[in-house]
Amino acid sequence: MKVNALLFWGLAAYFFIVGNVYAGWGLLAQGHIDWAGGTPLGLCALLSAMIAFFLHRTRRSQGGELPEDQREATVDEGDPEMGHFSPWSWWPFALAAACFLGFLGFVVGVWLVFIGAGFAAVCLVGWVYEYYRGFFAR
């Protein structure tokens, strides 16, 4: 995590420098600052600094070094339990289809958004309560 924090601090410094060079170059060339390019670069610097600060504080609060930061650590030491997944579940696919239907409604017609939202609500409830009905239960 220490390396990740250092990478994000470096990325924040890079975006800060590039944003200032971009704004200065626009000021010299055009006589005014190009806000459409300078603002995103500044926000990228801010976001990178926020992530770096979070990683730095998280590393300090853990008290010890993670296995990923130790040179003599093995791969098995950094292998945590990632959670429980359902490889046979169709609910994620159905929820993605419902979201697609909802976003398609913004293009085709607003009435389709409501159908997609209803379908997404049903799919979300089905996915959350999947294990309350048993394995492979429909």
In short:
This protein is mostly helical. The protein has 4 helices and no strands.
Q: Helical stretch count?
A: 4
Number of strands: 0
Order of helices and strands: HHHH
- Basic shape: flat
Describe, in plain words, how this protein is organized in 3D.
There is one protein chain. By secondary structure, this protein is mostly helical. The chain has two domains: 2-71; 91-132. The protein is 67% helix and 0% strand. The protein has helices at residues 2-30, 35-62, 91-108, 111-128. The mean pLDDT is 88.
List keywords for this structure.
4 helices, 0% strand, mainly alpha, 138 residues
Layout: helices, strands, pairs:
Elements: H1 2-30, H2 35-62, H3 91-108, H4 111-128
